[in-house]
Design a protein that fits this description.
Blueprint: H1 3-30, H2 34-64, H3 76-90, H4 96-121, H5 126-154, E1 158-159, E2 162-163
Antiparallel strand pairs: 1-2
Length: 169
Amino acid sequence: MEKDEKVRIIETAIQAEKETLNTYIKSAIKVSNVVGKNMFLKLALDEIKHREILEKALKSQLEGGECIFPEIEKTEVTKIVPDVEKEIEKTSHLGQDDLAALMLAQKVEKNGIEYYKQCMKNSWDEEAKKMFSYLVKMEEEHYALIQTQIDYIEGTGYWLGIREFTLDD
């Protein structure tokens, strides 16, 4: 793969992270529920971190022709899941506008997952593959967190992917 193609792939990913950040900030402003607002703000912070990772990779690609994947701390998303459960117990039911914002966010995450999977598949070295694999995992965690909120709004009886009740109860 040519250096210019590698740079284009990383620049595309950076632009996608910027647009996703904007989407999450706008969603945080739009939703009425404090849990939803906080979730979108946490997701926005993760998108900033993703962009920073990609910008470092781009810089190293431009300077030395190599993609260097920096060490990553545990994602903020995985740290907030217990707080989300506690907040939902204290809050009222989310509205339909909130559901629309969550579904849009989930679509954005799905697109990100697909893009990063394609980048991972076409990675030019192990460091690039490791970076895109990490980004796939983070976007999948975002998708799952958003699905948790959707399940709550829709009252499906699932919490964190586990059915809360059965018809035998």
